[in-house]
Every structure is written in structure tokens, then in C-alpha cells.
Write a structure and sequence with these properties.
Layout (H helix, E strand, L loop, with lengths): L3 E4 L6 H8 L14 H12 L4 E8 L2 E9 L16 E8 L9 H14 L6 E4 L6 H9 L3 E7 L4 E8 H11 L1
Parallel strand pairs: 4-5
Antiparallel strand pairs: 1-2, 2-3, 3-4, 5-7, 6-7
Helix pairs in contact: 1-2
Function: Acyltransferase required for the direct transfer of medium- to long-chain fatty acyl moieties from a carrier protein (MbtL) on to the epsilon-amino group of lysine residue in the mycobactin core.
Keywords: Transferase
InterPro entries: Acyl_CoA_acyltransferase, Acyltransferase_MbtK/IucB-like
């Protein structure tokens, strides 16, 4: 299964994304109470930010996941760890479904990581999920992330983890 990834259009895609980020399964996205205008505003701010980008992942033309990349030296993690040149921060969210497909989320995170590492400037991907989000910790580990330790962010206690291109390639080569 190959996904297509395209830039998110803050106005055209806001209604779709609003349904995803306010779904009970997206609790760790921290937008449960967001109104449509809040989602539009949030993604318009991202679209205008040179250090933060949002994308939709499509499966056969149908949007199935949201992905964000950011420069951790300037957003999210600025001042919380020692950023290196080539670091790229990442968030992803799979669209809610009533009929989950086994292994789908792992294929999504693999596609997200492959997309990020397709840029030769990306040397390491950085994530900071909530420490309570054990499901995403397992997914991160499956694609090569190594936890560095817990950090305190304004909105959550997070598990700072890193994945180099080599670790990603080794992890996904074994899984293939």
C-alpha cells in the first residue's frame, strides 16, 4: 500500500480534520473541544509558519491521516533539548474509523517517516508524545525510535524520542 502525501489546505480540509481531531480516539491531539473555526485558525497559522508544515495522507485519493513536520529548534521543543542540524519534529494522526485494519497505523507511520527521510537534509526525526500514550510509543519503537527521556512541556509530560535514518531503515527492512 502506497500513500500519497499532499499539503493540507487549511480552509478546504478544515472540516475533515475537525472531525478527526475532535474524535474521542484523538484525545492526545489535545483539540477535543475545538470548534471548526479553531481548526481553521490553527492550520492557517501552520500554513503561514516557515518552521511548521501540515500534510494530509491519502489512500487511493481518500484522506486517511494527518501529518505535521516542524523544526524543533524553533517550534514545540525549542529550548527543551539540544537540537541538531537535520532534526525534524513530527506528529501524525490516523483518521478515526469504525472498521480498523490490522497494521494500518504502522503502515501510516512508516509512510510518514519515509516521507520525512526522503529529504536528504533530514538526519533525525524527533517526537514528543504524551508519556501516557503507550500505543504510539510501541509504534515509534517499531520504526526505529529510541526514547531519550521524559521532558516537561507546557501542555503535557512527554517522552522525547529520536530516530535516525539508519535506525528507520534497519527497523523497516526487518519488518518488510
Amino acid at each position: 500500500m502506497t500513500f500519497t502525501i499532499r499539503p493540507l489546505d487549511p480552509l478546504k480540509d478544515a472540516s475533515l480534520v475537525h472531525g478527526w481531531v475532535t474524535d474521542p480516539k484523538a484525545a492526545f491531539w489535545m483539540m477535543q473541544d475545538a470548534k471548526l473555526v479553531d481548526v481553521e485558525r490553527a492550520y492557517m497559522e501552520i500554513a503561514a509558519d516557515e518552521h511548521h508544515h501540515a500534510f494530509l495522507g491519502l489512500d487511493d485519493g481518500v484522506p486517511v491521516f494527518l501529518m505535521e513536520s516542524y523544526d524543533p529548534a524553533h517550534r514545540e521543543l525549542a529550548g527543551l533539548y539540544e537540537a541538531r542540524p537535520g532534526d525534524v519534529g513530527m506528529h501524525f494522526l490516523v483518521a478515526p474509523t469504525d472498521t480498523p485494519v490490522h497494521g494500518f497505523t504502522r503502515r501510516v507511520i512508516t509512510a510518514v517517516m519515509a516521507h520525512l527521510f526522503a529529504d536528504p537534509r533530514t538526519l533525525r526525526v524527533v517526537v514528543e508524545p504524551d508519556v501516557r500514550n503507550t500505543a504510539v510509543h510501541a509504534l515509534n519503537e517499531a520504526v526505529g525510535f529510541v526514547p531519550e527521556g521524559e521532558i516537561e512541556k507546557p501542555e503535557k509530560r512527554a517522552l522525547l524520542s529520536f530516530c535516525t535514518r539508519e535506525r528507520f531503515e534497519a527497523a523497516t527492512e526487518v519488518a518488510a
